[in-house]
Target: Tat pathway signal sequence
Amino acid sequence: MARDFTKDESERASSEFLIDENFPRKKTKRWSQRPFRHFCIVLGLLVGVFELVVLETFFVHISWQSKSPSALGELNALVPNFPIHPVLFRHDPMATIGRNDENSRNATQENWLSYIPRGNGFIAVNNAEKYTLPDPIPFRGKSAYSIAVFHQIHCLHAIMNVFNELTRPASKHARDSDRGHDGHMDSHAHRHIDHCFRYLRQSLVCCGDTALEGQDPNTKAAGTDGTGAVHMCRDFDGIRAWAEEHRIVDTKHL
Model:
Protein backbone atom coordinates (compact mmCIF):
# COMPACT_ATOMS: atom_id res chain seq x y z
CA MET A 1 0.00 0.00 0.00
CA ALA A 2 1.48 3.35 -1.01
CA ARG A 3 2.31 5.85 1.78
CA ASP A 4 0.54 9.20 1.64
CA PHE A 5 3.45 11.65 2.13
CA THR A 6 1.17 14.62 1.75
CA LYS A 7 -0.87 13.53 4.74
CA ASP A 8 2.27 12.84 6.79
CA GLU A 9 3.68 16.31 6.03
CA SER A 10 0.38 17.95 6.92
CA GLU A 11 0.16 16.12 10.25
CA ARG A 12 3.80 16.95 11.08
CA ALA A 13 3.20 20.60 10.29
CA SER A 14 0.20 20.63 12.56
CA SER A 15 2.20 19.04 15.38
CA GLU A 16 5.06 21.55 15.05
CA PHE A 17 3.24 24.83 14.52
CA LEU A 18 -0.10 24.49 16.25
CA ILE A 19 -0.25 25.23 19.99
CA ASP A 20 -0.92 22.07 21.91
CA GLU A 21 -1.78 22.65 25.58
CA ASN A 22 -0.68 19.14 26.46
CA PHE A 23 2.70 19.55 24.80
CA PRO A 24 5.38 21.01 27.09
CA ARG A 25 6.84 24.15 25.51
CA LYS A 26 10.52 24.98 25.65
CA LYS A 27 11.14 27.90 27.99
CA THR A 28 12.99 30.90 26.56
CA LYS A 29 15.29 33.34 28.35
CA ARG A 30 13.11 36.37 27.65
CA TRP A 31 11.22 36.08 30.94
CA SER A 32 14.51 36.23 32.96
CA GLN A 33 15.98 39.16 30.97
CA ARG A 34 13.17 41.60 31.77
CA PRO A 35 13.87 41.92 35.54
CA PHE A 36 17.58 42.32 34.80
CA ARG A 37 16.84 45.06 32.27
CA HIS A 38 14.64 46.84 34.82
CA PHE A 39 17.38 46.54 37.44
CA CYS A 40 19.92 48.11 35.07
CA ILE A 41 17.57 51.00 34.30
CA VAL A 42 16.88 51.69 37.98
CA LEU A 43 20.59 51.42 38.83
CA GLY A 44 21.47 53.85 36.04
CA LEU A 45 18.90 56.34 37.30
CA LEU A 46 20.25 56.09 40.85
CA VAL A 47 23.83 56.61 39.67
CA GLY A 48 22.73 59.62 37.62
CA VAL A 49 20.91 61.18 40.57
CA PHE A 50 23.94 60.59 42.80
CA GLU A 51 26.24 62.27 40.27
CA LEU A 52 23.91 65.27 40.06
CA VAL A 53 23.89 65.60 43.85
CA VAL A 54 27.69 65.41 43.99
CA LEU A 55 28.08 68.01 41.23
CA GLU A 56 25.57 70.35 42.85
CA THR A 57 27.34 70.04 46.21
CA PHE A 58 30.68 70.75 44.53
CA PHE A 59 29.47 73.86 42.72
CA VAL A 60 27.67 75.17 45.81
CA HIS A 61 30.90 74.71 47.81
CA ILE A 62 32.95 76.51 45.15
CA SER A 63 30.40 79.33 45.00
CA TRP A 64 30.41 79.66 48.80
CA GLN A 65 34.20 79.74 48.90
CA SER A 66 34.34 82.48 46.26
CA LYS A 67 31.93 84.65 48.27
CA SER A 68 33.06 83.87 51.80
CA PRO A 69 35.53 86.22 53.51
CA SER A 70 39.10 85.12 53.97
CA ALA A 71 40.80 85.01 57.34
CA LEU A 72 41.15 88.56 58.66
CA GLY A 73 39.04 89.74 55.72
CA GLU A 74 35.91 91.89 55.62
CA LEU A 75 32.69 89.99 56.32
CA ASN A 76 30.62 91.61 53.56
CA ALA A 77 33.34 91.48 50.86
CA LEU A 78 33.32 95.30 50.72
CA VAL A 79 37.12 95.19 50.93
CA PRO A 80 38.91 92.83 48.51
CA ASN A 81 40.97 89.87 49.64
CA PHE A 82 44.69 90.51 49.45
CA PRO A 83 47.41 87.94 48.72
CA ILE A 84 49.51 86.33 51.44
CA HIS A 85 53.31 86.65 51.40
CA PRO A 86 56.09 85.23 53.59
CA VAL A 87 57.78 88.08 55.48
CA LEU A 88 61.03 87.79 57.43
CA PHE A 89 60.86 89.80 60.66
CA ARG A 90 63.96 91.98 61.07
CA HIS A 91 65.09 94.55 63.60
CA ASP A 92 63.64 97.92 62.54
CA PRO A 93 65.53 100.75 64.26
CA MET A 94 63.27 103.40 62.73
CA ALA A 95 60.20 102.10 64.55
CA THR A 96 61.33 103.60 67.87
CA ILE A 97 63.21 106.68 69.00
CA GLY A 98 66.94 106.02 69.03
CA ARG A 99 67.92 109.18 70.86
CA ASN A 100 65.69 111.25 73.04
CA ASP A 101 65.92 114.36 70.87
CA GLU A 102 63.69 116.13 68.36
CA ASN A 103 65.51 114.85 65.27
CA SER A 104 65.09 111.24 66.35
CA ARG A 105 61.46 111.89 67.27
CA ASN A 106 60.72 113.46 63.90
CA ALA A 107 62.40 110.62 61.99
CA THR A 108 60.41 108.02 63.92
CA GLN A 109 57.20 109.96 63.37
CA GLU A 110 57.79 110.06 59.61
CA ASN A 111 58.49 106.33 59.62
CA TRP A 112 55.16 105.61 61.33
CA LEU A 113 53.32 107.98 59.00
CA SER A 114 54.62 106.00 56.01
CA TYR A 115 52.34 103.14 57.08
CA ILE A 116 49.23 105.34 56.96
CA PRO A 117 47.39 106.07 53.68
CA ARG A 118 45.99 109.45 52.80
CA GLY A 119 42.56 109.51 54.35
CA ASN A 120 43.81 107.60 57.43
CA GLY A 121 42.07 104.39 56.32
CA PHE A 122 38.52 105.77 56.38
CA ILE A 123 36.21 104.84 53.50
CA ALA A 124 32.55 105.47 52.68
CA VAL A 125 30.00 102.65 52.37
CA ASN A 126 26.80 103.24 50.43
CA ASN A 127 23.59 101.65 51.74
CA ALA A 128 25.36 100.49 54.88
CA GLU A 129 22.09 99.15 56.30
CA LYS A 130 22.20 96.33 53.73
CA TYR A 131 25.31 94.82 55.29
CA THR A 132 26.35 93.27 58.58
CA LEU A 133 28.10 96.36 59.93
CA PRO A 134 28.11 98.48 63.08
CA ASP A 135 26.51 101.90 62.92
CA PRO A 136 28.44 104.16 60.54
CA ILE A 137 30.50 107.20 61.49
CA PRO A 138 28.59 110.21 60.09
CA PHE A 139 31.03 112.31 58.06
CA ARG A 140 30.11 115.02 55.56
CA GLY A 141 26.83 113.33 54.74
CA LYS A 142 28.49 109.94 54.18
CA SER A 143 28.54 106.68 56.11
CA ALA A 144 32.20 106.31 57.01
CA TYR A 145 34.06 103.26 58.31
CA SER A 146 37.64 102.71 59.43
CA ILE A 147 39.78 99.88 58.05
CA ALA A 148 40.91 98.06 61.19
CA VAL A 149 44.64 97.75 60.53
CA PHE A 150 45.10 101.53 60.40
CA HIS A 151 43.16 101.97 63.63
CA GLN A 152 45.46 99.37 65.17
CA ILE A 153 48.58 101.24 64.01
CA HIS A 154 47.11 104.47 65.37
CA CYS A 155 46.54 102.86 68.77
CA LEU A 156 50.01 101.35 68.98
CA HIS A 157 51.52 104.71 68.04
CA ALA A 158 49.47 106.40 70.78
CA ILE A 159 50.83 103.96 73.38
CA MET A 160 54.37 104.56 72.15
CA ASN A 161 53.89 108.31 72.42
CA VAL A 162 52.79 108.03 76.04
CA PHE A 163 55.78 105.83 76.81
CA ASN A 164 58.12 108.31 75.14
CA GLU A 165 56.62 111.16 77.11
CA LEU A 166 57.13 109.27 80.35
CA THR A 167 60.82 108.89 79.55
CA ARG A 168 61.39 112.53 78.61
CA PRO A 169 63.19 114.84 81.04
CA ALA A 170 60.82 116.14 83.71
CA SER A 171 61.36 119.74 82.61
CA LYS A 172 59.59 119.02 79.32
CA HIS A 173 56.50 117.39 80.78
CA ALA A 174 54.63 120.64 81.11
CA ARG A 175 54.80 121.22 77.36
CA ASP A 176 52.88 118.05 76.66
CA SER A 177 49.19 118.82 76.03
CA ASP A 178 48.17 115.39 77.36
CA ARG A 179 49.48 116.22 80.83
CA GLY A 180 48.23 118.43 83.59
CA HIS A 181 50.34 120.80 85.62
CA ASP A 182 51.27 118.00 88.01
CA GLY A 183 52.71 115.88 85.19
CA HIS A 184 49.95 113.28 85.26
CA MET A 185 48.03 112.19 82.17
CA ASP A 186 44.62 113.82 81.78
CA SER A 187 41.46 111.70 81.89
CA HIS A 188 40.78 111.81 78.13
CA ALA A 189 44.27 110.57 77.23
CA HIS A 190 44.04 107.91 79.92
CA ARG A 191 40.73 106.60 78.52
CA HIS A 192 42.21 106.58 75.02
CA ILE A 193 45.21 104.49 76.08
CA ASP A 194 42.99 102.12 78.04
CA HIS A 195 40.89 101.67 74.91
CA CYS A 196 44.01 100.97 72.85
CA PHE A 197 45.23 98.27 75.22
CA ARG A 198 41.84 96.52 75.10
CA TYR A 199 41.48 96.96 71.34
CA LEU A 200 44.96 95.73 70.47
CA ARG A 201 44.60 92.67 72.67
CA GLN A 202 41.41 91.71 70.81
CA SER A 203 43.15 92.36 67.48
CA LEU A 204 46.12 90.15 68.36
CA VAL A 205 43.89 87.32 69.56
CA CYS A 206 41.81 87.63 66.38
CA CYS A 207 44.92 87.44 64.20
CA GLY A 208 46.28 84.37 66.00
CA ASP A 209 49.70 84.50 64.32
CA THR A 210 51.22 81.01 64.65
CA ALA A 211 54.69 81.67 63.17
CA LEU A 212 57.45 79.87 65.09
CA GLU A 213 60.03 82.19 66.63
CA GLY A 214 63.55 81.22 67.69
CA GLN A 215 66.41 82.38 69.86
CA ASP A 216 67.07 86.10 70.28
CA PRO A 217 70.40 86.63 68.42
CA ASN A 218 71.37 89.54 70.71
CA THR A 219 71.62 87.55 73.93
CA LYS A 220 72.89 84.22 75.19
CA ALA A 221 70.01 83.92 77.60
CA ALA A 222 67.25 81.63 76.40
CA GLY A 223 64.48 83.73 74.89
CA THR A 224 63.14 85.26 71.71
CA ASP A 225 62.52 88.75 70.34
CA GLY A 226 60.89 87.44 67.16
CA THR A 227 63.80 88.40 64.91
CA GLY A 228 64.46 85.94 62.09
CA ALA A 229 61.04 84.29 62.08
CA VAL A 230 59.10 84.08 58.82
CA HIS A 231 55.45 85.12 59.10
CA MET A 232 52.69 84.67 56.54
CA CYS A 233 51.45 88.23 56.06
CA ARG A 234 48.80 89.90 53.97
CA ASP A 235 49.99 92.34 51.32
CA PHE A 236 50.09 95.49 53.44
CA ASP A 237 51.22 97.70 50.56
CA GLY A 238 48.17 96.53 48.61
CA ILE A 239 45.85 97.24 51.54
CA ARG A 240 47.31 100.72 52.00
CA ALA A 241 47.03 101.50 48.28
CA TRP A 242 43.40 100.34 48.17
CA ALA A 243 42.53 102.39 51.25
CA GLU A 244 44.13 105.48 49.74
CA GLU A 245 42.29 104.97 46.47
CA HIS A 246 38.95 104.83 48.32
CA ARG A 247 39.68 107.62 50.82
CA ILE A 248 37.10 110.24 51.73
CA VAL A 249 39.64 112.93 52.71
CA ASP A 250 43.15 113.73 51.51
CA THR A 251 44.87 114.40 54.82
CA LYS A 252 46.69 111.87 56.94
CA HIS A 253 47.94 111.85 60.50
CA LEU A 254 48.46 109.59 63.48
Remarks:
- The first strand starts at residue 84 and ends at 88.
